[in-house]
Amino acid sequence: MTVKIAPSILSADIMNLERDVRAADKAGADVFHIDMMDGNFVPNMSFSPSVVEGMRRVTDKPLDIHMMMENPDAYIKPVIDAGADTVLIHAESTQHIYRSIDLVKSYGARAGVVVNPGTPLETVKELFPIIDQILVMTVNPGFGGQKFIPGMTKKIQRLDQLRQTAADDNFEIEVDGGINADTISQCARAGADIFVAGSYLFNGEAGLEKRIDDIRSLAVEAKQ
């Protein structure tokens, strides 16, 4: 039974990023989720390969790179060279998503595809046999702290059903957007494996370790 908690550093204190990454690592983070935004594909900008390189120096945990940008192929090699373990590319950002996935794999990293709330699963179904991960956006991409879109639970459930019906589809299901103590159980019950949480972890009142433990416990319980 897989449950991985992935703190999103978009919600960390940018002026004390190393401190927050080390704290989340010590508190039990399984993966770190890094958003790269270009201000074109989404109306915001954040992080570059240099941030990935800096994080690689302070944590051994896997680095999950979420590319919210046009022309993602131009950044694949730089982020992998910087230390990325998984590169996630939006199906909506390129006309050649198969080529992009193949490029990630050619550099030795895990490859994943991202689908926005309004993107049907059918548009990426052909990729299922070759991807390691699929990220279902449970908010519209571009900003942290948004509210979970309830209808995405059914989308996650359908994706899990599709995964179970094909012997060669072994990808992990990741969810990103509005994940907290109220929403993680429904996502886990629907079939998600990796849970990206930002505001809930870094901006809450309780300590990071307690918040990570709390949502992990809720997800594990929901999967039983």
Task: Tell me briefly what this model is.
The protein is α/β, with parallel strands linked by helices and 224 residues long. It is 36% helix and 20% strand. It has eight helices and nine strands.
List keywords for this structure.
224 residues, globular, TIM Barrel, nine-stranded mixed beta sheet, 9 strands, alpha/beta
From the spread of the alpha carbons, the general shape counts as globular
CATH homologous superfamily title: Aldolase class I
**Helix content estimate:** 25-40%
* Count of structural domains: 1
Strand order within the widest beta sheet: 1-9-8-7-6-5-4-2-3
- CATH class bucket: Alpha Beta
- The overall strand count is 9
Mean pLDDT: 93
What string gives the helices and strands in order? EHEEHEHEHEEHEHEHH
How many H/I helical runs?
Answer: 8
Low-confidence stretches: none
